Amino acid sequence: MKLKKLAQLVALMGVVGPVMAQEAVPPAMQRVEVTGSSIKRVAKEGALPVQVISFEQMEKQGITTAEQLVRTLSANGTGAENMTSGNNVFGADADRLAGGASFASLRGLGPGATLVLLNGRRVATHGASGRAVDLNSIPLGAISRVEILKDGASAIYGTDAIGGVINFILKTNYSGVEASVSTNDTQAGGGATRRASILAGTGSLEEDGYNLMASLTVDKAQRLNGSDRSFVNGYQPGRGLSPDTTGTPFANQMAGAGTALGTAFQLPGDPNQYLQANPLSFQGKCDSVAGMSQYQTALWKDVTSPLRTKYSCAYDYGADYVLQFPVERANFLSRGTFKLAPDHRMFVEALGSRTKATAILTPMQVQTSIANKAVYPVGGAYYQDLSAYIPSFDKTKPIAYKWRANDVGNRTQENTTDNARVLLGFEGNFGKWDYKTGVSYAQSTTKTKLTDGYSYTDKLYAALGTGIINPWVGAGQSQTEAARQLIESTKFRGAFQHGKTTLTQIDGAVSGELFQLPAGAVAMAAGFDLRREGYSFAQDVDANLILLAPGNAALKDVSRNVKAVYAELLVPIMKDLEMQLAVRRDDYSQVGATTNPKIALRYQPADFVLFRASASKGFLAPSFDQLYSGVLTQELPNGVKDQEGCIKYPGVKEYCSIDRLSYTTGGNLNLKPETSKQGSVGIVIEPVKGYSASFDYWAINTQDQLLKRTPQVVLANYQALNQYIFRKADGTIDYVQAGWFNAGGSRVRGLDVSLRGEGKVGDAKWTATLDGTYMDSFKFAEYKGQEYKELVGNFYTRDLYLRWKHNASFGVSRGDWSGLLVQSFASGYKDQVPNDGKGTPPPGFKADVSSYTTYNLSGTYTGFKNTTLTLGIQNLFDRDPPFTAHNVDEVVGAGWDPRVADPRGRAFTFQLKYKFL
């Protein structure tokens, strides 16, 4: 007799998730469809690499959003796909159209390489970005379970499934009424979350021939500021970390032709030339203004002028970041299922959601010059005479300065995303043949408003040029009423941009048994998928008119047709050996056609052991934004180095250090689909009843990877990418061409480990689980011909490819009581040395970021009639995020990294669920 537990594991091809218990196996002989296959079969016969997570276990964890759930998966990447870093990041993963969105990224291959499904069908991608499904749109309150396929699935589902598939399965055939409320409050304050939901259903599909159900969930996350957490600190020079920006609230004066400082200045007896000055620096009082400090020249040496900032103040603007944005969500689902005949059903499903996420960014940095006419005028009330410190100071000339415009306010973007999907479907069976078909329409619309912190460029520069606004507001001081009114008159508030994606889909499939072989029946599935995808994006106002606006070039309505057919076979080669064959042909009207096969083997020579293997090809079609978005000219937030200029003209600033680099970014009509080859081998064992383990080694090779090239990458690889650097006649850089391109590719290797044990002590039951991913290698080539670079265990701006991540749990239940302890672990990595090591790290500097471990504890009581109470503590030991010396540019975080850690600290959760009927 086969071991029941092993049959369970095989049925879902892998042990249960890290902290989640598997749902019960369906009744005997009931055929089910599991993510990763279109063939319905008896559950114990399945063989698919699927991890199953139940809704009840999410509740016990205090998980209230799909983003939180995905971040618990060891197979998910450690990247900038979450709200905090995703809306602040300046580097390669910057997606200015993804305001308030969150995405999944299995294997760290990016959001576009992870397919997110709802009940096995596609939903519209994010309304503004258009590249992936926003996790905020998933109605988690109506979810029954989540299935995660950690294997390539282009042969089954088409594009997006290179990294894997996350399938959110909704509740169906529910009868009764239940309501729940939950709270999550941090001990240190800020960042609280609230959720309330109601689920109601009536009718029994078997007895009444119908079932009607509806669910409504609303939740709200409150703001958490960087100032609320002590570990958010970008000024720790003793640990190799110090701000590298001289845009300060108490402005630094800048050198420049026609200004008071001239092109540079010198001090008596000092041969060095300096480019910036601040009286607080001369006095040793930079820290008298909150967030400011003396610029640490030793850490941030400049190639051409090591002491240019010696008399400047710096500003820790990274500590101003909002760590958790205010978010409000509402998700509504209604479903009606009707029995047309004993074996035939029709269902209608309507889904709607609204997410309002307020992205709050740091105040803008303003640099004035003679050219923009924003210099401080001679004779102004706040004219700052530095003659006492700089003998060459010319007080007959205006002052150029760099100012962090705190008085203009935090740049605030209100992003509202509305999602809707309507689906009409039919399913049933004719004997041993099952069928399903459906027609659906889905859309996602995102609208962005700028509500504070943004000014019209010409109005702000003109206002600064009046001298009424004081860029040197000291501690305890404030702007005059006239200055505040003048600043207010420059601001832009209102609708800024909007985007929309649409998806119309008709699909159908049949599955059943073809014929018998000596080892069993050959089963097959065949189907089709017809889709029309659309996208549009428009600016409500010209972004070029607004200083540092997050705009993108408008994209007129574009659409494409996708036609796909697929087939799948399940062949029992012999009694204990089964083979799955699948192939899919996709034809994109504007990208081309591709065929992707897959083969998988399942071999069970004994009751206690199972071997499995798979090999497949995958592809990822470029998104509309990647293909068609227009060219937009932007500036980097800080200066970068022209390495070629530094080599050719050593010591000449204008040929090396660029204060404000212009670059272009946008779509690329020459993009090709990203392709992949991948495979895995694994083993599942249950040596003793109640104890099981699985080990799966996997590999993914990609080519023509779709990535956004940054100007920093172009400049760093100028020898290979010189065609993207455009220079003026004198040899200085005019601008750099960046944007979407096909990278050389990646080579990824890793091992998934899942362990499970369960037993009884007296009348108490216990369970223990562990789910981890060991990243053996992640090698990446930015462009074709470049040598692949190993990224695992090293700082990187896109993703942190950590060597090991796991989630482990231990649960106990007895009668009406149950408890759960969960451990989450992420290994450390090599930190980035400030300024690429050109500076001088302090004595004892450690270029390693430590590992990060947290514990969650919860208890549940069901002893009251129809009532479930759950109390929990998240981050039980109040572990702070590990320190990193990386500066905030390219990846948000001052002294910490939001891609790894949760900034909320210890939090207390409470949930009450009551069933009325």
From TrEMBL:
Keywords: Cell outer membrane, Membrane, Receptor, Signal, TonB box, Transmembrane, Transmembrane beta strand, Transport
Gene3D superfamilies: TonB-dependent receptor, beta-barrel domain, TonB-dependent receptor, plug domain
An example Gene Ontology CC term for this record: cell outer membrane
Pfam family, one: Plug
Record's bilayer topology term: Multi-pass membrane protein
Family: Belongs to the TonB-dependent receptor family.
Localization annotation: Cell outer membrane
Species in which this protein is naturally found: Janthinobacterium svalbardensis
Protein name from the UniProt record: TonB-dependent receptor
Domain (TonB-dependent receptor plug): residue spans on this chain: 47-165
SUPFAM superfamilies according to UniProt: Porins
Signal peptide start and end residues: 1-21
